Amino acid sequence: MKAMNIGGKVIGNKYPPFIVAEMSGNHNQSLERALEIVEAAAQAGAHAIKLQTYTADTMTLDLNQGDFFIEDRDSLWHGRSLYDLYQEAYTPWDWHKTIFKRCRDLGMQAFSTPFDETAVDFLETLDVPCYKIASFENTDLPLIRKVASTGKPMIISAGMATVAELDETVRAAREAGCEDIILLKCTSSYPASPEDSNLLTIPHMRDLFNCQVGLSDHTLGIGAAAASVALGACFIEKHFTLSRADGGVDAAFSMEPEEMKQLVIETERAWQAVGRISYGAGEKESHSLKFRRSLYIAKDMSAGEALTPENLRIVRPGYGLEPKYYNVLLGKKIKQDLMKGTPMSWELI
């Protein structure tokens, strides 16, 4: 399966995981804070910052009742209207250019999730290297086709999509001109639990749709992300904030800088550890072969004596014959005097 290139960064299983810090609404409507988030992500080792490009009016209707009011008491946003929530969380469009420039200055990639066609047109003026499709928008086929028509790589969160829905999405993207797709396993609850993550979907999704795969992770901590790499994930996205204590619409399930640093380190270690199928001693293990058990003379012996359990032992180190020859050697006579501690060899009998 071919790797893909996003802004000069190669992404695929043969390369360390690509780590994306999702800013979302954690800027708390402060451009200064948004730039501090960029700098903190860069210092933590993240490879990219992702924004979300929408306005409250492009997301929903300005209503405070019925379907447009969040009544679910288990929701982080219980008691709010969708419009008010998006009004608070959105990233002003005139900030994008400044944020993207700061990312590039710090050696990071910068891209965004568009939520309607006007957002795609706007992001094209900023020459973004790729596009992310949110899990709640992956069935919006007109939006999928619009993004795919740019010819740029698409990262699509699978979210709650069925296999049939995801097939429609991938087909629409490919037919509209997108050649490079990364599908992300994503559990659309905030925060998500490890038990609901079902990471075994990742290799299945890779094989089913013949594309690179990754994880959009809403769990707390780094365990799920590290595990996903072992299952083939080459792209990890996590929400990111300066401090959860500062609040914000997504703060409760966002990573802090030190956590992001550990995510970068541990996912790369997981990738390194996956390696290849290997048996036997590796190059760096070969010196440890001496610590295996082998056959040694355990008592001083005279020529002509027979080997017995008392004078032939299986011990460390491993310079003698292998233990599998123990029963073969018992009863055999030695042809010369031997000192205790002599490694057993065929030449001695």
Report on this model:
With 349 residues, the protein is an alpha/beta fold. It has two domains: 10-54 and 90-274, Alpha-Beta Barrel (TIM Barrel); 286-348, Type Iii Antifreeze Protein Isoform Hplc 12 (Alpha-Beta Complex), CATH 3.90.1210. The chain contains eleven helices and twelve strands. An eight-stranded parallel β-sheet has the order 5-4-3-10-9-8-7-6. Helix 6 (141-148) links the parallel strand 6 (131-133) and strand 7 (154-157). Helix 6 (141-148) runs parallel beside helix 7 and helix 9 runs parallel beside helix 10. The chain starts with a strand and ends in a 20-residue tail after the last helix. The model has no long low-confidence stretch (mean pLDDT 94).
Describe the SSE topology.
Blueprint lengths: L3 E3 L2 E3 L6 E5 L8 H14 L3 E6 L2 H4 L22 H8 L6 H10 L3 E6 L2 H9 L5 E3 L7 H8 L5 E4 L5 H13 L5 E6 L14 H9 L2 E6 L5 H8 L4 E5 L17 H18 L19 E4 L14 E4 L10 H4 L20
Parallel strand pairs: 3-4, 3-10, 4-5, 6-7, 7-8, 8-9, 9-10
Antiparallel strand pairs: 1-2, 11-12
